[in-house]
Structures are given as C-alpha cells and as structure tokens.
Write a structure and sequence with these properties.
Elements: E1 4-5, E2 13-16, E3 36-38, E4 47-50, E5 53-58, E6 67-68, E7 73-75, H1 83-94
Antiparallel strand pairs: 1-2, 2-3, 3-6, 4-5, 5-7
Amino acid sequence: MDKILKIHTSDNVAVAIDELKKGEYGALSDIPQGHKIALKNICKGENIIKYGMPIGHALADIAVGEHVHTHNVKTNLSGNVPAVTWWVLVGMILCGIL
C-alpha cells in the first residue's frame, strides 16, 4: 500500500497516509502522518496545490521531498472562514461538483 496520497492530478503535494521516515518516497526528513510532502520544487510565493486547488503559498523555496506544513506555507484564505464551510467546499471539489 502506498504511504502517500496525491488527491488530484494537478497537486504539487501529497499527503502522508502514514508517517514517512527520511528517505521514504524521497522524503528529506521524517514527515508525520497527515502532513504534506512536496512532489516538485515549489518556489517562494508559488501556490501549494492540494485537491486541485491552491490552499496556500510557499513562504520559502520548498524542495522535492520536503515537509510542507505551517512552517513554510501561508494560507490563501482571508478573514474568518468557518471550518464547516471549508470542509463543505473540499467535499464538493472531491465529488466533482466544483
């Protein structure tokens, strides 16, 4: 079973289904379960694409295999977006409605 999941063909990150140890799937460090791994080099300011949608942008250059999380990504959301709204949107994307 794969330990990473690329949700959409245009994603530049994948989700670690299980903890990744350094070297697994090209991981440059250990990556906790549920966190993201870069599938390509991502330049500072470039969008992080997950679910086929931009979910944030890189705060610094991110190398292939690097852990992608709050230390190197800033959300593209603004204002106070209730969590339920976000997950409804995600569900609509995954179901092909959006």
